[in-house]
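Predict structure. Chain length: 151.
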Amino acid sequence: MSRILITGMSGAGKTTVLHELSRRGYRTVDTDYDGWVLPDGTWDEPRVSALLASSSSLIVSGTVENQGRFYGRFSAVVLLSAPVEVLIQRVSARTNNSYGHSEADQSAIRQYVLDVEPLLRGGATLELDARRPVSDLADDVERLVAAEGPA
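Prediction complete.
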């Protein structure tokens, strides 16, 4: 069973890639929605532990402070990265999430790229250029799933 985490800064395309993988038939969970993240901005650890204990292959996305506690339970940690200008353009244009529309949010994203992204890079097993087409990124993640064997 493969367990893949897709992580990265806001605007990197985590949700978009996850949607493409779901469309292709993979079991996916976007932890930005449905109560996976607690008010303090960390994953609900008992809930995530239960999810990762399930018996089927899984692709999860998210970026939270305590995700590193779970890295050993993922067969791969994929970092989607892009230049900060691309991230800001994407979050400014999206309509499904208001985060990133304000100057304060954009300033925070710029700081996270400096402070947080290097930590994500250090824990990643694969980094993908998020400027590439979504279908290509999903193909790369599919290859990781296939390398782990049948679902």
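Summary: The chain is about 40% helix and 15% strand.
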